Fold this sequence. Notes:
Blueprint: H1 6-19, H2 24-42, E1 48-53, H3 57-71, E2 75-81, H4 89-99, E3 104-108, E4 121-126, H5 138-148, E5 154-157, E6 181-185, E7 203-207, H6 213-218, E8 223-225, H7 228-232, E9 249-253, H8 260-271, E10 277-282, H9 287-293, E11 298-301, E12 319-322, H10 330-342, E13 346-349, H11 351-359, E14 371-373, H12 377-384, H13 393-404, E15 407-410, E16 415-418, E17 424-427, H14 439-452, H15 457-479, H16 486-491, H17 493-498
Parallel strand pairs: 1-2, 1-4, 2-3, 4-5, 5-6, 6-7, 8-17, 9-10, 9-12, 10-11, 12-13, 13-14, 14-15
Antiparallel strand pairs: 15-16, 16-17
The structure holds ligand NPW and potassium ion.
Ligand NPW binds next to helix 1, helix 2 and helix 3.
Amino acid sequence: MKILSAQQIREADKQTIQNEPISSIDLMERAVSKLFESIDASYSDDSSFAIFCGKGNNGGDGLALARWLFQNDYFVQVFIIEHSDSASEDFKENYKRLSDLEVGVLHISAAAEIPERDDDTVLIDAMLGSGLSRPLEGLLADVVKSLNTLQNERLAIDIPTGLFADDNSENSFDVIFKADVTLTFQCPKLSMVHKDTAHLVGQIEVLDINLDEAFIERTFSLYSYLIPDQVADLYKPREKFSYKGTYGHALLIAGSYGSLGAALMSGKACLRSGAGLLTAFIPKCGVEIYQSALPEAMVISSDNEEVISGLPDLEKYNAVGVGPGLGTSSEASKTLENLLGAFDGKMVLDADALNILAANPDFVNKLSTQTILTPHPGEFKRLLGLQELKPDYLERLREFAKKHSIIVVLKDAITAIAAPDGQIYFMDYGTPALAKGGSGDVLTGIITGLLASGYEPLHATKLGVYLQGIAAHFASDETSEEACLATDVIHNLGKAFRTLS
Length: 501
Ligand SMILES: NC(=O)C1=CN([C@@H]2O[C@H](COP(=O)(O)OP(=O)(O)OC[C@H]3O[C@@H](n4cnc5c(N)ncnc54)[C@H](OP(=O)(O)O)[C@@H]3O)[C@@H](O)[C@H]2O)[C@@H](O)CC1
Ligand SMILES: [K+]
């Protein structure tokens, strides 16, 4: 699903009105019918709603929604924030339609005029949407700040008031409505997945309001938001007449004394992601542990007792994963350098492999075009030699992936995958259950397994991020976000695969 800018969405809106054709007010009514459907499916009949409306079309949506809710027996109150003397045409029309009904409407000229309401009223933000043209100040800023202090459940229509759809680098975040859920029209907006502002949006629900499909198709965007159907399209079921060789041989280079767990979790995740065979190349001290804990894997040990050293013959491997628990010893660094010189197949680098890259910037030039790097924000910063990630971090990510013709996965609550052609794909499958040691090792293993079993790098990456997220959701449903372990995630990979077929 493409992420379009506010400008592009306005154009899509215009094209739809022209080409379908449909009047603007009917398009608004269609959008609001989708809003209502979503709200009606999520709330019980006795729910009550307080809708805060601005005077543009976002406010028009709010007024129309009030009518739909009222006519379906929900309790609803409307507050019109008088931020402007004028109002949009569709606002006026919906104001008229609402005035025929017995819905309480209050005009607010100062934040203090908003009456108190009980805690279980759901607050709906229909103040401003994609028409925001400058940071909030005055009345709207006061209202937003005051609503942000309340504990009520909070829903934003299209986009939280005060948040720009595209660029918030000059915005002040304390005057943006903080939503638990944002019901957004047609496509997600960049600010909803940007790491600085995603937390203001809450859960994103995209409502298809049938804007001009042909226009959207031919509109260029560097950003996409991957929905489950798009990921499922990448999945290739195993064939009946196949054998272990069909699904490739993975090599995992991982582990050091005290960090063999990382190598084990990664190996287990690799095998649970479909690799035909796995060989783990680990330091000598780990051989017995590894073989008893993961009998399905073969093991080659390095000469060194405690750290990885040397490199096995690479010829028979279809994919290599390197980094989990590796440490940054000079031996491991030499191994990585040799590996990059000797192997130009599909490869994933994570954890200490990334730290070694960061410490040896010239190694980056040796990466093959089938390489995937999976840094978290801290590792990404080090890799690029940055003190901090600025609001333009997505540009840095894109440039880095393009320059080296590799895939870079910036792991976060919403993960961003940069492809060598400059496209960035956002994957919103994370859960706080993954905020734990071992998660990165599991992802490395999953992607390595998918690569070995025949997926091309970009497909393996998208599938891998999805599978880990979904498995983590299953695992935390069983255990809780707190108690969920990386190994629980591995155990649930099977269930996650089932969602693909
Ligand atoms: N696209 C679609 O497909 C569909 C879109 N729909 C809906 O339309 C929404 C977009 O509507 P919109 O264009 O009327 O803009 P909206 O967000 O209501 O704000 C405009 C008003 O805000 C004002 N204003 C701006 N900044 C301000 C500030 N800082 N402080 C104070 N005022 C400020 C601005 O005034 P001005 O800048 O002129 O002073 C103007 O009065 C969209 O989000 C969606 O909900 C659906 O109904 C149907 C399908
Ligand atoms: K809004």
